[in-house]
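Deliverable D2.4 — example input (structure tokens):
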């Protein structure tokens, strides 16, 4: 998150100034919003601060590869290389097949990649959250700034990479001769539910990280635990029935299953399950936003 903590360029400051001129009541609304957290502000936190989120997200995406020869091309090369490695190792060497689905070892690489795609999105938001406020003290002390929007910036950069990975996955399926159903167009639905949960995690962990520095060590370990406690390397049915239910305590389990249903199996999703997941994710995000807004007044004292 050092990219976010960098000073804005002159052109960015000019744009922000123009934005403020067009929205003269922005500071007044922000003062209210920093102390209130109505349910509508879960989404309103990005809509009302869309200019700031857009500018910082752009800086984050371009800045990640700044100074490299290939630039943004790396965002395509990295998932391509990973998918190629999975295909070679699990398809050519180990020849592993997914027990619950027909097809060969090449499909196993796609199944594995799809699960890791979802985990990577969540893991990036989780592991960057502890230092999100700590790395940007200038936004806490020196200016009126919507701190809650920093979490959206982290999510935007993670989603950008995830979408590229989805495109590469679809082309891979076509390359290995798999039929791609129209249901692939619905892939944003489970991702949207996961994004809501990621936002809630970001608000919760970033606020804790200001007061408890050890949380940064915990999130890395937690990310690893969530990886192995989700059906990424194995199907849910590989576990005893009495244990399978506990997998759904992992917030990435259901999105992984529904993403595979849509993109790999070509089936319609579990609409009721998605509705319940969205509801739980929204309530969680609202609760963590309310807590973030309550404790943010103490950030300046600590920093």
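Example output (designed residues):
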């Amino acid at each position: 998150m050092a990219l976010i903590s960098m000073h804005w360029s002159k052109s960015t400051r000019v744009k922000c100034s123009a934005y403020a001129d067009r929205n003269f009541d922005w500071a007044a609304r922000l003062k209210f919003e920093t102390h209130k957290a109505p349910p509508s502000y879960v989404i309103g936190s990005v809509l009302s601060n869309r200019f700031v989120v857009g500018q910082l997200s752009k800086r984050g995406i371009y800045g990640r590869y700044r100074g490299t020869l290939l630039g943004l091309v790396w965002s395509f090369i990295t998932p391509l290389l990973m998918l190629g490695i999975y295909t070679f190792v699990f398809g050519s060497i180990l020849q592993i097949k997914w027990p619950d689905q027909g097809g060969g070892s090449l499909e196993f690489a796609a199944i594995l990649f799809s699960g890791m795609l979802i985990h990577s999105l969540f893991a990036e938001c989780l592991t960057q959250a502890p230092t999100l406020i700590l790395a940007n003290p200038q936004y806490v002390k020196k200016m009126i700034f919507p701190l809650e929007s920093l979490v959206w910036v982290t999510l935007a950069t993670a989603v950008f990479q995830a979408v590229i990975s989805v495109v590469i996955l679809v082309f891979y399926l076509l390359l290995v001769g798999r039929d791609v159903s129209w249901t692939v167009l619905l892939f944003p639905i489970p991702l949207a539910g996961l994004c809501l949960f990621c936002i809630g995690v970001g608000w919760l962990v970033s606020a804790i990280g200001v007061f408890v520095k050890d949380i940064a060590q915990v999130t890395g370990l937690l990310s690893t635990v969530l990886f192995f406690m989700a059906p990424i390397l194995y199907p849910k049915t590989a576990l005893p029935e009495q244990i399978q239910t506990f997998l759904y305590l992992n917030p990435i389990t259901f999105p992984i299953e529904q993403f595979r249903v849509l993109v790999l199996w070509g089936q319609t999703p579990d609409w009721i399950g998605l509705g319940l997941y969205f509801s739980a994710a929204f309530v969680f995000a609202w609760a963590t936003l309310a807590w973030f807004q309550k404790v943010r007044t103490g950030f300046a004292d600590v920093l």
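The two ends are 16 Å apart (CA to CA).
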